[in-house]
Every structure is written in structure tokens, then in C-alpha cells.
């Protein structure tokens, strides 16, 4: 069976989203700073259909996100913001016609909705009956490959707390947000045992991969 | 002029001491886990008069703590626990007759006390009029060398918040404490700007050195 891996950027003060999150600004105030390390990268730009960009020590890390991935889970805000529930002109997400995923994506939401088929092998499925159900469905879709939890912060927090992650890759950004959603909030001592697997130094962010067990 | 450098171990959930700190247990519940990476090291054991120990990627990091240091600042709990204020049988600290510092050490406290002269060049001075005064005294004693803020957590938090640090070396331990003193508590966005200087991977801890400015 594949692993369940989470990838997420955390500020130095432990936040994975800033304060005052809204549907229009799901990263909260200042939260966009978390991802600034990513946007100049060639690998990121290419996966979003843009040209140019840098190659740094972070490039192979980002390339590694998609290795051996058979299905993806993400929170509702990660799929796409906008007025909810789905309304008359339903949002089709942040990701355009050809999202960079190319595998089934299971979106955690409270609102039922038909699957959304995109180009390039990405289909969004909307899961309303909780994180364990989403994981079961993702595992079935992934076959023996990994399930990637792509964020956002609350989803990562929930899966970690439920003991459902095998690996977590933190991108620690030298940013102070001063408030928001903390990745490790409400997780007591002994609820997760972490072991360092790999550290990658990059100018704008430090990548640390942990094995997680209970 | 030398730099003001802080060194401190932080848990993955952002704590530099566990919950329920007391004078007898200044690291709080579970807080000793923060420093477990350090104790097996040969360089640590030698500095405390013990033989044996390991050499790992953390060894040069620990050796680097003392490089170019002219004076040290530490919190009261870091100097030594026990019944306070000083009483009839005053505590002489955790550090024995020949502490590993070999420079003047300025201890932040609320209780006045005469300087305590130890062997090997270490003298503890007790500063009751605040962190800026302690820094002024340490700078004067350090000449052009660096001032090292050796902990504990509250002192580091205070100096960071006051914008008095030039560098902070975090030892990020893969430990979840679930409560206690957070290094970055109460520090708002923009109150400290951090830039990654160096990352060192070690099995039991990740060392990240940041340049700090405002």
C-alpha cells in the first residue's frame, strides 16, 4: 500500500494560514507570504503553464511532490474560493482547465456536488462525509501509489490529529504571521511521533521531511 | 561591534519550554525532550567534564556557539533553579565550580545579588534592571566580540520582541510539547524580519540560523 503524505508550508511561528481567513482570501491576512518561495520556481511555473523561472535546491523538492502519487486530497479552500455553496455559477476552482494534478482529487467539503472532470486526467470528487471517507476513496483510486494531502492547513491539522499521515513534508518559511491556523494546534504530546527523514536548505525556505507515527 | 546571537531549541509546535514550569523544573512538563539531541554529543559531554560521546553533524554547530563570544546573557531559570530569592544557602547554579562559559555571564533576575566568581573565567553577574541594561553590560564586557543569549525561552522571546537580536540559531527538534512557552508568541508580522543563513541536517534535530532585522 502507498503512503499518505502531506505537504505544507509553515511559518516560523507555526502557522499554515494567516488570521481572518475568508472564502475570497483562504490564506488569511499575510498568508500569501507562506508561498512566496514557490512562485519564482521554474517547476512551479511550468506546472501552471507559465514559462521561465528559477532552478534552486527547492526545485527537486517540488518535483518530488508528484512522484508516485495516485490520488490527492485537499480542503475546500484549496480547491477554490468564491461564494459558497456552489450556487448558480459554480466555481470551477483555482486550477483552470488543465490542473497540474493529473490524478483524481478528493475535495473535503460540506456541500454535495457532482464530480468535475478536467483535462489531463484530473477529476475533482467532492466528499461530504469526512476525512476518513475521503482517505478511503483516495486510497482506492491510488491503487498502490501514494495519497498526497495537498492542504490547506485545517485539513493537514485534521489528518495529523487523526493519526492518518505517514509522512509530512514541512516547508518552513522565515515568515512571522502572528496569528491564524497553527498546524500543530490541539495535538498533545504522544499524539504524533516524528522522525527526521530529510532536510533541504534553500535560500527562501527550509524543507524538512518527517516520518510520522503514533 | 559584535553581534547579539541567540541559540535555542524549539519544538516542532513552536515551544521552547513545556507547560507548568516551576523553579525545580524550569523546562516544564516534557521540556527535557527539547535537549535530548544535545546530551549524547562528545562536545557537550566534554564541556561538562564528561568523557565519551558522539560526533555528528550537530557537533560543529555546538562548537560554533562559543566562537567569538565575549559575554553571555541568560534567564534566571537557566542559571539555576531552586528556592528563590537567594535565601540563606544561595544556589550556585546548575553549572558546578567550573562552568563551560569562561566569559562574564549576565543573569536576568528580579533579586539583587553580589557577583559569583567561578573557576575558568566565568563570573555570573545578576542584573535586576531589565533586558536592555543586561545587554549594555554584556556588550561592554564583550568588547568587540559577540554577546550570546543562551536562553531560556522567555528571555529569547523578550529580546526578539524588543528587536535586540542580530541572529537566532534555532535547533528545531522533532518533538511535540502541546503547550508551554512559545518563542514567537506575541510577535506580530513585521516586528521581526528573518533571513535564512545556514541549515544543518542532523538525525535528531534541524539547525537553522537566521539573520534578524526589523
Tell me the series of helices and strands of chain A, N- to C-terminal: EEHHEHEEEHEHEEEE
Average pLDDT over all residues of chain A: 90
**For the terminal residues of chain A, how far apart are their CA atoms?**
18 Å
CATH class of chain A: Alpha Beta
Specify the CATH architecture of chain A: 3-Layer(aba) Sandwich
User: Segments of chain A where pLDDT lies below 50 for 5+ residues?
Assistant: none
Rg estimate of chain A, integer Å:
16 Å
Q: Biggest interface in this structure?
A: A-B, 34 and 33 residues
Question: How are the strands of the largest sheet of chain A arranged?
Answer: 5-6-4-3-7-1-8-11-10
Question: Counting H and I runs of at least 4 residues, what is the number of helices of chain A?
Answer: 5
Strand content of chain A: 25-35%
Number of domains of chain A: 1
Percent helix of chain A: 10-25%
Counting DSSP E segments of at least 2 residues, the number of strands of chain A comes to: 11
Shape of chain A: globular
Helix/sheet category of chain A: alpha/beta
CATH topology of chain A: Dihydrofolate Reductase, subunit A
The CATH homologous superfamily of chain A is named: Dihydrofolate Reductase, subunit A
Task: Summarize the main sheet of chain A.
Answer: 9 strands, mixed
Describe the structure.
Two copies of one chain form a homodimer. Chain A is α/β, with parallel strands linked by helices. Chain A has one domain: Dihydrofolate Reductase, subunit A. In chain A, 18% of the residues lie in helices and 29% in strands. Chain A has five helices and eleven strands, in the order ββααβαβββαβαββββ. Chain A has helices spanning 42-47, 58-65, 76-79, 131-142, 153-161, and strands spanning 4-11, 15-17, 69-75, 104-108, 116-117, 123-127, 146-149, 167-173, 181-182, 193-202, 205-213. In chain A, the strands form two sheets. In chain A, strands 5-6-4-3-7-1-8-11-10 form a nine-stranded mixed β-sheet, sandwiched between helices. In chain A, β3, α3 and β4 form a beta-alpha-beta unit. Chain A starts with a strand and ends with a strand. The A-B interface holds A 12-14, 30, 170, 172, 174-178, 182-185, 187-192, 194-196, 198-199, 201-206, 208, 210 and B 12-14, 30, 170, 172, 174-178, 182-184, 187-192, 194-196, 198-199, 201-206, 208, 210.
Amino acid at each position: 500500500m502507498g503512503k499518505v503524505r502531506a505537504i505544507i508550508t509553515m511559518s516560523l511561528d507555526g502557522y499554515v494560514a494567516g488570521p481572518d481567513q475568508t472564502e475570497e482570501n483562504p490564506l488569511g491576512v499575510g498568508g500569501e507570504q507562506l508561498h512566496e518561495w514557490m512562485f519564482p520556481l521554474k517547476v512551479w511555473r511550468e506546472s501552471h503553464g507559465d514559462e521561465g523561472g528559477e532552478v534552486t535546491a527547492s526545485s527537486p523538492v517540488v518535483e518530488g511532490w508528484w512522484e508516485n502519487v495516485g490520488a490527492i486530497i485537499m480542503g475546500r479552500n484549496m480547491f477554490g474560493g468564491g461564494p459558497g455553496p456552489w450556487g448558480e455559477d459554480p466555481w470551477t476552482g483555482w486550477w483552470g482547465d488543465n490542473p497540474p494534478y493529473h490524478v483524481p482529487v478528493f475535495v473535503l467539503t460540506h456541500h454535495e456536488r457532482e464530480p468535475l472532470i478536467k483535462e489531463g486526467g484530473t477529476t475533482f470528487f467532492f466528499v461530504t462525509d469526512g476525512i476518513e471517507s475521503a482517505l478511503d476513496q483516495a486510497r482506492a483510486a491510488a491503487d498502490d501509489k501514494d495519497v498526497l494531502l495537498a492542504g490547506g492547513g485545517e485539513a493537514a491539522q485534521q489528518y495529523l490529529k487523526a493519526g492518518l499521515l505517514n509522512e509530512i513534508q514541512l516547508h518552513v518559511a522565515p515568515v512571522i504571521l502572528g496569528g491564524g491556523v497553527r498546524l500543530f494546534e490541539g495535538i498533545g504530546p504522544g499524539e504524533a511521533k516524528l522522525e527526521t527523514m530529510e532536510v533541504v536548505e534553500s535560500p527562501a525556505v527550509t524543507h524538512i521531511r518527517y516520518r510520522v507515527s503514533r
